Amino acid sequence: MTPRRTILSGLGMTVGVAAIVMLVSLGKGVQQDVVSQVESLGVNLVIVLPGRISAENPFNPMSFIGLSTLRESDLEVASRVSGVRRVAPIMFVAGGANRGKQWADAALIIGTTPEWFQMRPHQLAHGRLWNEAEANANVCVLGPKPTEQLFGTENPVGKTVRLNGVPFRVIGVTAENTDRSLLGSGGFEFAIYAPIASLQKAMGSRQLHRVIAQTASDKEPNLIVNQLREAIRQNHGGSEDFTVLTQEELLSRLFTLLQIVQVALTGITSIALFVGGIGVMNVMLMSVTERVREIGIRKTVGARQRDIFGQFLLEAVMIALIGGALGVLVGWGACWIIDQYTVLTPVVTWDTVALALAVCGVVGLFFGTVPAYRASRRDPVEALRYE
What we know:
Blueprint: H1 3-39, E1 45-50, H2 62-65, H3 73-79, E2 84-93, E3 97-99, E4 102-104, E5 108-112, H4 114-119, E6 124-127, E7 139-142, H5 144-151, E8 160-163, E9 166-174, E10 191-195, H6 196-203, E11 210-215, H7 221-235, E12 242-246, H8 247-290, H9 292-300, H10 305-341, H11 350-376, H12 380-385
Parallel strand pairs: 5-10, 7-9
Antiparallel strand pairs: 1-11, 1-12, 2-5, 2-11, 3-4, 3-8, 6-9, 7-10, 8-9
Helix pairs in contact: 1-8, 1-10, 1-11, 3-7, 8-10, 8-11, 10-11
């Protein structure tokens, strides 16, 4: 078997393994990113969303088209549930924020109450948060990104921005974590916060898109979910046109989607391993043909069928494993490049490497069995006559 053939046969394994290492590592990196962002929301949170979400259908069109089945009375109902410490409404406002000709790209305008800032503590770079007395005032708190885009390095406190054309006075600037991340700082570095009552009045809408409940630290959120769900269901006249999720359930829904995509992509890239395995088998079959005389000599000096079978099977497995090891290095290098030059952060772990090499070993065993069997069944007399 020539070195060129060996290299070419292992190349398919290298490509397949590199693709699998990249995809699995990217999937783990995204999951780690999502976990850190959801956990940054705070502790012991229960989230009420409009519409129904199930494990079978984790997509919630209510979250995307702007319609909401939640009511303002749900806030009072939720606050009366035993074990709930705080309740905060969330209203998302589509549109933009500008200061003259300067616009804040991708600004996330959020209407809420001071309770939100108690659930998710915010560090402030400048100014302050609003209080209950300013619930109807046109004031706002900017995240670091809108501040940079609208004011540059200037302190914006006391100045005015327009939210969908309505003037709001800036009273504070948050200091969100702006570390590189797929989700940024969960999007909160792009946030512009304003009192929900003033936003509703300014926008002419009473929409309520989320109800966030914080449970007491000594209470298990899962135990409160059923009570909260029943209280809101009664407030909706028996209609359960909403979903109540803990942070863990929210993560499980997100991971279900991620895993579906990851399995699909891994299945597609596994075709390269299949092709590589066929390449290994073809090369080993050619090797058997070229080494017929060697097989005959080995058998005449006492080699048994299982010895010949084991020799050729081991060679096939070694080709697959060496190709796989190179694939791990290529995949690792690709993940490093992605980590350095994109917002993605692949997480390469030893179990991913072990999985990739184990798959290579199995592919080598599977596709090396036929050539090894043919080699072991060669008649020694006929083999010695072979030219």
